[in-house]
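=== How it folds ===
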Amino acid sequence: MQKKLTIALVAHDHRKVDMVEWALFNAQTLSAHKLVCTGTTGGLIQAALSNAGVKSEIVCMHSGPMGGDAEIAAMVVRHEIHLAVFLIDDLYPQPHEADIQMLLRQCRVHNVPIACNRYSADLMITSTLWDDEHYIPSTPQYVEFVRK
């Protein structure tokens, strides 16, 4: 991939191991991009990549419950995020559920690809569309559908 992306990485506590494994699996690809992470996730990824000898640009926001999800959502709204990977723990309730839903919603509204599992994250990070100069993602159309 030639284009440098800003990629948001977020993982709930029970999914952090998955996120670190995914980041290590994709370390060479990720090292060419800017990573924006929630606090704890970013620290874990930074340590894992560093231990693997991979240099990467990682910016850590606050932890999710302390506003990190909201900070990344604001970056989505400002068109500063190209791709988000958010490994959500669907088996346990989260105290900051409103922030989680806000981040997911802003990615959908602003047409930012968001992967919520490793398989979709692998498909998105390896897509050739990132460098296809002829591919322009369509802008979402929020218009009323009139049934005839």
Observations:
- The chain has a mean pLDDT of 94.
- The beta strands are 6-11, 34-37, 57-60, 83-87, 114-115.
